[in-house]
Design brief:
Blueprint: H1 2-32, H2 34-58, E1 61-63, E2 67-77, E3 82-87, E4 94-95, E5 100-104, H3 107-130, H4 133-202, H5 208-300, E6 303-305, E7 310-313, E8 322-323, E9 328-345, E10 357-362, E11 367-376, E12 402-409, E13 425-430
Antiparallel strand pairs: 1-13, 2-9, 3-5, 3-8, 4-7, 5-6, 7-9, 9-12, 10-11, 10-13, 11-12
Length: 434
């Protein structure tokens, strides 16, 4: 029994001795090589810090090699038909904005301008002729109305005067009729006296002289009746003449009233007609002016100018060639407005937004350019392709899509205009930049 209890105690002592020996050995290594241990710790810390910073650097930007420089390419076309008179540039030549590229023969268009200008002059002359007719018509109709009023007043005065003459003549006719009746009564009395005197002279109761006096009185009475009748007829004729004067004055009054009413009724229409004539001629003049401006515009199209500073390319026009409207003659590649189209994977767009700083490495010159994210396309490149994919039909395989991102190259970095659209570039967008 004592031997059995002693064995475990020896085993425990052996284990403790081994651990102590290892600790002593370890302490002896650090103690023996303190500098190596410190260098090891420094290297380990530097590697950890460098690895962390490298990991942060890799996450601070997104890059792609699916990118190229883009720019505006202006198709130079003719807006009119004509014969090419001269060509002022060649392929790959630098053209300045406003520089003459192609000139067409302007003869036909100059003739059209001259013809349109003559038409405008004629239209304006017609307006100058027609415009005074408006106040003239107004004055004429107003004068007609005024004259008609004067004629009406004169006709009424003539009617009144003729009526007075007629009334006086009618009174004279009535007086003459009364005189005739008195003369007839006197003639009848004289005839009766003559008959009585005849009986008495036959009986010799009166003298022949008395009978002759009675006979003369009877003849005088008959002559007086005839005279009174003649005077009455004259006065009746005067009354009838006065009546005719009244009728004529009434006719003149009616005519003047009709003329005045017609002038008053037609005056607005006549003025409106003259105004319409002026308006129509003004419209014709405006139309002719439009034709003149169109002819001048076509004449200006005979000179085809460069829209921007750029490089000429795809020139397919020569002097003497007949060109038609809309025909492309050449292209001008802008060299002042360039950008980068970078097709990033959709998984790279999480932290990307407009305004972030970008670095663009141009392969052709092995040079970096500063830029800025300008915009992100509204759809992936596949959606803008000629035949966009239809994932709803057939077998579907998920493919990481690429979305075009537009990066603007900052001004002043390419003074010699070495960059060209289509050059390959590798952009880096710094995600921590704003």
């Amino acid at each position: 029994m004592p031997e059995t209890a002693e064995a475990p105690a020896q085993s425990a002592g052996s284990s403790a001795h081994s651990a102590n020996a290892a600790a002593v050995e370890k302490r002896s290594f650090v103690a023996q090589h303190p500098i190596k241990f410190i260098v090891f710790l420094i290297v380990l810390a530097a590697a950890a810090i460098g690895g962390y910073r490298f990991w942060l650097y890799l996450g601070s930007y997104e890059s792609t090699d699916d990118a190229q420089i883009d720019g505006d390419i202006y198709a130079i076309t003719s807006r009119i038909s004509g014969t090419v008179k001269s060509v002022g540039v060649q392929d790959n030549q630098l053209a300045k904005s406003g520089q003459l590229l192609v000139e067409l023969d302007p003869t036909d268009y100059q003739l059209a301008v001259d013809q349109a200008r003559a038409a405008v002059t004629e239209s304006r002359s017609q307006i100058a002729i027609a415009r005074p007719a408006v106040p003239i018509t107004s004055v004429t109709t107003e004068s007609t109305i005024s004259n008609s009023a004067s004629d009406i007043a004169g006709a009424r005065a003539a009617i009144a005067a003729a009526q007075r003459s007629y009334d006086a003549a009618q009174r004279e006719v009535d007086a003459a009729q009364a005189d005739i009746r008195r003369a007839e009564a006197d003639a009848a009395k004289a005839q009766a006296d003559l008959v009585r005197y005849k009986q008495l002279v036959d009986k010799d109761e009166i003298s022949r002289q008395q009978y002759d006096q009675a006979e003369a009185s009877a003849r005088a009475a008959i002559a007086g009746v005839e005279s009174k009748k003649a005077l009455a007829e004259s006065r009746k004729a005067a009354a009838e003449s006065a009546a005719r004067v009244i009728e004529e004055a009434q006719a003149r009054l009616t005519q003047a009233q009709n003329r005045q009413a017609e002038a008053q009724r037609n005056r607005p229409q006549e003025i409106a007609v003259q105004n319409a004539i002026v308006t129509g001629r003004e419209a014709t003049a405006a139309h002719q002016q439009t034709l003149l401006e169109s002819a001048l515009q076509n004449l200006s199209y005979a000179k085809i100018l460069a829209p921007v500073d750029g490089i000429v390319g795809k020139k397919n026009v020569e002097p003497g060639q007949q060109v038609s409207a809309g025909q492309q003659l050449m292209a001008v590649v802008s060299i002042s407005n360039l950008w980068v189209t970078a097709n990033f994977k959709e998984t790279q767009l999480k932290a990307m937004h407009p305004g972030q700083r970008a670095t663009v490495h141009v392969d052709a010159y092995d040079k970096d350019f500063d830029g800025e994210v300008e915009s992100v396309a509204g759809a992936s490149g596949a959606r803008f392709s000629l035949l966009p994919p239809e994932n709803a039909t057939g077998n579907y395989v998920k493919v990481v899509q690429r979305v075009p991102v537009r990066i603007r190259i900052k001004d002043g970095q390419d003074p010699n205009h070495l960059l060209r659209p289509g050059m390959s570039v590798e952009p880096q967008v710094w995600l921590d930049s704003k």
